[in-house]
Amino acid sequence: MELPTSDASSLVGQRKKNFMQSHLDHPQSEQAADYVLNQLDDSQMASVERDIKTDAKLRLTVKELSDAAAAIAYATKQTIAPVQGNPINKLAKVETNSEAGTKDKE
Amino acid sequence: MSEHDNNPEADNALLLRVAVGDQTAFAQFYDRVSGPLYSMALRMLSNEQEAQDALQEGMEHLWRKAPTFDSTRAAAFTWAVMLFRSKLVDRVRRSATQSRTLEKVTTQMDPDDYDDATALVSLARREDCHIVRRVMTTLKEEQQELLNHAFFSGLTQQEIADQTGKPLGTVKTVIRRALIELRDRLSKEGYQP
Q1: What is the average per-residue pLDDT within A81-89?
Q2: Own/partner pairs, B48-54, CB within 8 angstroms, 24+ separation
Q3: In contact, A41 and A18? CB cutoff 8 Å
Q4: Residue pLDDT, tens place only, B138-184
Q5: I need a surface site. Which of A40, A74, B7, B101 has the fewest CB within 10 A?
Q6: What is the ipTM metric for this complex?
Q7: Residues of B numbered 20-59 whose beta carbons fall under 8 angstroms of chain A's beta carbons: which are they?
């Protein structure tokens, strides 16, 4: 699909901006990758989460790596979810269980 | 639903409505993410009934956790996928299916090959799928293999090293660099979750 010239150039500009923002690796990028892929133990995860709160660049790195990791979900055969799995009709049961003091699975 | 095509902000707005108990918004959000989530569960669990159970459990978990969603830290799609994946990883690590799971992840997707195309509810999602698969194929073969293992198997890096016969240091380095390169290449393509 051909975009109008003005739209195309602004889209290219935004893509370049996105790339420039992300290609500067944070010193903790590799640990951030492990964090995103659930490869850290509990104490290491807690340490990264503390750092995220105070380090804006690390927070951005984790956000970008999480986006990339989540994209991998597309790299498998896409199958229609079962309609009966739509939880909308079962939410009342979840909330009722909570109200009755039943312990929800975490 | 068409008004939400290719619009991460709309996904974020939906999830913020879910966070305050909006069940209609939750049903819409389910429609938008259930395809990729269920597909991920099928891949990781290799069993339809288990995948359906995991999807149900996962969506209930998303409902309870929605108030914790922070759009400054993650896009709604990313948040849902990664939260759901964490639950799947817990399930895989508790089960005895780990050795079978690692075998399953060696199949690479052709960028133009997906069944049940309507599982991706919008043109934008199908385009995202195409972009991601195309970019994945530009990674080195070892990067693709180990990154797929890391994401879909639920195994630890040590277990992946044990099962592939590769040194642990190599596995760690390759997976980390593969994810960082995937991030860079997706960003160059203008991919936004």
Answers
A1: 68
A2: B50/B91, B52/A82, B52/A85, B54/B87, B54/B88, B54/B91
A3: no
A4: 999 999 999 999 999 989 999 999 999 999 999 999 999 999 999 99
A5: B7
A6: 0.88
A7: 23, 26-27, 30-31, 34-40, 42-43, 52, 55-57, 59
Res A16 pLDDT > 50: no
Q: Which of B69, B3, B2, B82 is nearest to B40 (CA)?
A: B82
> How many whole angstroms separate alpha carbon B121 and alpha carbon B124?
8
How many C-alpha atoms does B84 have within 13 Å on its Cβ side?
34
Contact A87, B30 (CB under 8 A): yes
> If we measure between CA atoms, which residue out of B38, B87, B166, B143 comes closest to residue A33?
B143
- Tokens for B125, please give them: 């999602």
Q: What type of residue sits at position B139?
A: L
Q: What is the distance between the alpha carbons of residues B18 and A4, in angstroms, rounded to a whole number?
A: 36
Residue B24 Cα distances to A98, B76, B88, B165, angstroms: 20, 16, 26, 49
Q: What pLDDT is recorded for position B82?
A: 96
Q: Is the pLDDT of residue B128 over 50?
A: yes
Please count the residue pairs, one from chain A and one from chain B, whose beta carbons lie less than 8 angstroms apart: 188
A22 neighbourhood in chain B, CB within 8 Å = 183-184, 187
